[in-house]
Amino acid sequence: MFKKIQKSREGIGGLLSALRPKRERGIKIEPKRSTVIGVFSCKGGVGKTTTVANVGMYLSERMKDNILAVDANLTAPNLNLHFGEFNPKVTIHDALADELPIQKAILEYHGLPVLLGSIAYGEQIHLVDLRGQLEPLKEKYKVILLDSAPGIGSEVVAAIKACDEIIIVTNPTIPTIASTLRTFRAAEQHKVPIIGIVVNMVRKEPFELPIGDVRKAMGWPILAVVPEDRKVRESTAAGVPVVRYFPKSPAAREFGKLGESLIGRITKG
Ligand SMILES: Nc1ncnc2c1ncn2[C@@H]1O[C@H](COP(=O)(O)OP(=O)(O)OP(=O)(O)O)[C@@H](O)[C@H]1O
Ligand SMILES: [Mg+2]
């Protein structure tokens, strides 16, 4: 069994090194009124929205209302569900449709300001200038945290372009990591610096890639290793992020550490 895993790891070695982007050098992070940090992953269901909800909640506990979480998954928004909201009364879609100034589309859950999406939005999402849309909000918040759609389609590209820096979420399995590497390529193409990786849903099963190998395959720092934790699913079902619902759970602690490291980064500018 172990031999089989070893062999498949060697087999994908070539694929991983071919896909691995070269480190972008010399990208400077310009001082901004807000820093827009996006959470991305080509693969669906890895925990992007969970990361945004929890890091957002943690930062709001530490930074008060200096943080805004935005659902930039415009075709299938679901950040709302992490706050127990099925039908937000105002949404980012209202602002994109010019029906509302974007500042008026912000709601608040457990003290965290959020810009949610409309699940009932039936129209096609055309190319959106998300960066331009967020501009009026940059004077109000220190950090804008963006939740992205999976894939690498036009709405994901619009979200990447709106970011000053990005975090990539993956799970410790070979197919997820291989597809996540495409997100690195897109970030590199649009010259958006990568802060690092969140490895989520770690079960420490023998078929998972060890964290050291994930780091080698990705070539960027690992910011957090979040365990698979049923308290996360329980919290999602309850509509309260786990950092608030079960703050002592292993996953909540790890999201908290990620939040602290972002605070350190933001404070250092
Ligand atoms: N560490 C974890 N332990 C247990 N369950 C988790 C963990 N992280 C996320 N989940 C659960 O996995 C599911 C998918 O998570 P989430 O919606 O955050 O993924 P996503 O990457 O945003 O998905 P999509 O690409 O569809 O937007 C959710 O039900 C969530 O509760
Ligand atoms: Mg999501």
Quick overview of this protein structure:
It is built from 10 helices and 8 strands. It is of the alpha/beta class and 269 residues long. The chain has a single domain, classed as 3-Layer(aba) Sandwich (Rossmann fold).
Can you offer a commentary on this structure?
- The chain is α/β, with parallel strands linked by helices.
- The protein has a single domain (34-268), classed as P-loop containing nucleotide triphosphate hydrolases (Rossmann fold, 3-Layer(aba) Sandwich).
- Helices cover 41% and strands 17% of the residues.
- The protein is built from ten helices and eight strands.
- It has helices at residues 2-19, 48-63, 92-96, 130-134, 154-162, 174-189, 211-218, 230-238, 242-245, 250-268, and strands at 35-40, 67-71, 106-109, 112-115, 143-147, 165-170, 194-202, 222-227.
- It has an eight-stranded mixed β-sheet with strand order 3-4-2-5-1-6-7-8, with helices on both faces.
- A hairpin with a 2-residue loop joins β3 (106-109) and β4.
- The chain is globular, with a radius of gyration of 18 Å.
- Mean pLDDT is 88; it is low at 1-9 and 24-32.
- The chain binds adenosine-5'-triphosphate and magnesium ion.
- Adenosine-5'-triphosphate is lined by residues 41, 44-50, 73, 150, 200-201, 226, 228-229, 232-233, 236, 251.
Small molecules bound in the structure, each named once: adenosine-5'-triphosphate, magnesium ion
Portion of residues within helices: 40-55%
- Compute the average pLDDT: 88
Tertiary shape? globular
**Assigned CATH architecture:** 3-Layer(aba) Sandwich
Number of helices: 10
Assembly state: single chain
Compute the number of structural domains. 1
Largest sheet: 8 strands, mixed
Spatially, the strands of the biggest sheet line up as 3-4-2-5-1-6-7-8
CATH topology: Rossmann fold
Output the CATH class name.
Alpha Beta
Specify the CATH homologous superfamily: P-loop containing nucleotide triphosphate hydrolases
Taken as a percent bin, the fraction of beta residues is 15-25%
